[in-house]
Structures are given as C-alpha cells and as structure tokens.
Design a protein that fits this description.
It contains 14 helices and eight strands. It is mainly alpha-helical and 381 residues long.
C-alpha cells in the first residue's frame, strides 16, 4: 500500500511490501514529483512491478496461478529435468483440476484429507505420496519462502498404506535367478537380429555394476577403460515427456563416479565390443557418430521402454519373476552385501547421495542375517 506526502522538492511516495525471498517487510520510496497525481501514477507502476515479481499477499493467490509460478520460477531451475516433468505433470493432472480455483488460504485440512482418501482409491500409495509431497512442498514455500501464508493445512495428513504383502518390497534376482536370466538374454529363435548380443551385454553390465538404466544407455566406449578395468559415469540418458531423448548430467553429484569392473565383466564387454562391430557390418546398422556402447539399428540411443519390455519377455521365457531393469541395480547391491562388502562401499559404487538409501538392502536378504549369526556363533564357541 502506497502513502504520499509533500516535501520541499515535490511529492513523494512510499510503498511498504513483503520481500518474497525473506518474508520480511521492506519499504521503497521516491520523491521529486511535481504533483500528487504524478506520484500516484508512479507508485501504481512500481507496485505492479513488485507484484509481478512475487505473489499475492495474505494467501489470496489462486492455487492455479501460484502453482504455475512456483513450478516455473522455483522448481524448473533447481531440479533435474525429469524431476521437474514429473512434478509439472502431477500438478497439471491432479492438483490444479481439484484445487485450481481455490485461494491458498481456502484449503482446509479436513477437505484436503478427504481428497487424499479419494486419490488413494485410484492410485498406489507411492503415487499419492508423490502428489502430496509436491503440494505440501509448494505450500511450505508459501509460508517460509514468500510469507504469504501463516499455517500449512497439509501437515499430519494420513495416507493409507498398501495392504499387499510385497508392496514397497525391494525386488531383485537371487544369484541363481540372475544366472538363469542372463543366459536367457539371447535372441529368440525367430528374432530378426540373431547375431546381436547387445541386450545380454547391457543386462550383464547393469547386474555387475549397479548402473542405473539411463547411465548405461548414455555410455560411449570412451567411458569404459577395458585395459585398466574401469567405467566412468558422467552422464545419463533421459526421455522427457513427448520430446526427443537427451543426455544430461547424472541424478545427483554423488552419481558422478568411477566404477571398478570385475574380470568377468571385462571379458563380457570385450566380447561384446567385437560382437557389436560384427552386428553392424552383418545387418547394415547405422554406425553411431557418438560411439555408443548400446545403440539401435539406426545408430541412436536405445529406448528405455523397449529395453524394459524385452526384459519382461525374457523373464517370462525363463520362468522368472517379472522384474524391471532397475531390479538389476537392486540385485547388484544385495549380492555385494551378501558377499561381505561394506555399506559405505556399496553406497559409493551405486552413487547413492546418502548411506541411508543403501541401508534398505540390509533388510531384504536372509543370507546376511544368517552369516552374521554364524559369525556370532563361531565367536562364542
């Protein structure tokens, strides 16, 4: 709100407003206007500029307007593209259709809880938690970052847990299942490219390094030093919604790492490098100008969804549980721990940002528990 006063050098305006970054009140003034009308017009223009850079005060902003500005200004520059696209899609498809015409201050905890309960009838626990997390984060910023709300009605919300026994359970192959799976990763009897072994090589690398699927598909041969037995992870492949694939930096800073390869993986990748060259020549594949380790017949990146569907097909063919490529990362972590590797080593190898992420694997295998008890029994005997 602007105030005006006449001074010796003319009229002056003074505007008091909330700093959107700190939530504290600030003032802005300017003088030297010949008439009060000129000061009023200048103050109105300045207030408009201030408003355009921030949000309506006292929670009066429509949620549709607030969420759009929150995503564009404060999330897009701060998170990875894939993360932003997931958040934007949930806001657009779930939050705005239900709450878009509400003002921020109109949300009540009771009504919001009823909405969460309705979502839970349609979506899994994980999906509902993701939607709630995005909305709660936006409301939290409205309080602590912008000072336009005083309370967060989205706190202490109850989300019903999945009743299925295996819900949220880490899925992985046992050592025997992994061996059977990899042996089955060869072209089916009537497949078009019988000589190609790129799927077998890809799944072997995932299972023996713990790479994320996007990290593996982004690899070029320059990233793999077969002589010294190391692999460098510096990028990842993403497929943004309705756009072409692109290579970007890894998920987190800790994801940038160098992985030591075991002798069997080195042997497999050496054989595959020869096989890749033979396959390109035999079937007339387009050579990748990027020297991709895993490429399509057109010389492009493999599509993540195609790799996933192929894995499902192999699992069915081999009579194994229907697992996704990410389960091979889980498998690697579990097998390392079962072999006696430390939690810290596994965390660094997998590129986890926090060791707490790695600790979840300690609860999914009976072998670690049995080995620990065996050691304990031998110690006491």
């Amino acid at each position: 709100m602007a105030s005006f006063r006449k001074r010796s050098n003319g009229w002056e305006y003074r505007i008091r407003y909330v700093d959107r970054r700190t939530g504290k009140y600030r003032e802005k003034s300017k003088g030297g206007f010949r008439t009060k009308k000129e000061a009023e017009l200048a103050a109105a223009a300045e207030e408009l500029k201030i408003e355009e850079r921030g949000f309506a005060e006292n929670g009066g902003e429509l949620i549709a307007v607030y969420m759009e500005k929150w995503l564009e200004t404060f999330k897009r520059p701060a998170v990875k593209l894939n993360t932003y696209l997931v958040q934007e899609r949930n806001v657009r498809l779930n939050i705005i259709p239900r709450w878009g015409n509400y003002r921020l201050k109109d949300i009540t905890r009771a009504e919001y809880q009823r909405w969460i309960n309705e979502l839970r009838e349609k979506y899994s626990e994980g999906t509902v938690r993701r939607i709630h997390s995005i909305f709660a984060s936006a409301i939290n910023d409205a309080i602590h970052e912008f000072g336009i709300l005083r309370d967060n009605p989205l706190q202490k919300i109850k989300i019903a847990r999945d009743e299925h026994e295996d819900a949220g359970k880490i899925k992985f192959f046992t050592v025997d299942e992994l061996s059977r799976f990899l042996a089955a990763c060869v072209p089916a009897k009537h497949a078009k490219y019988q000589h190609s072994r790129h799927h077998q090589a890809l799944f072997t690398l995932l299972a023996r390094t713990g790479l994320r699927i996007g990290e593996a598909l982004a690899l070029t041969w320059d990233d793999i030093d077969l002589k010294n037995g190391t692999l460098s992870v510096t990028k990842t492949l993403i497929y943004p919604l309705n756009t072409d694939p692109r290579v970007t930096t890894p998920k987190t800073r800790s994801s940038i790492r160098t992985i030591k390869l075991d002798p069997e993986t080195i042997r497999a990748m050496k054989e595959y490098r020869v096989n890749q060259k033979e396959t390109i020549l035999r079937y007339g594949f387009q050579r990748s100008d990027k020297s991709l380790v895993f490429q399509s017949p057109e010389g492009r990146w493999l599509r993540i969804n195609v790799v996933r569907e192929y894995m499902y097909e192999v699992c069915k063919r081999a009579g194994l549980p229907r697992l996704s490529p990410h389960a091979l990362r889980h498998s690697h972590a579990v097998h390392l721990l079962e072999a006696g590797a430390t939690i810290r080593y596994v965390a660094e190898r997998l590129g986890h940002a926090s060791i707490k992420t790695t600790e979840k694997y300690l609860h999914v295998t009976k072998k670690i528990e049995k080995d620990a008890l065996d050691l304990y029994a031998r110690y006491l005997s």
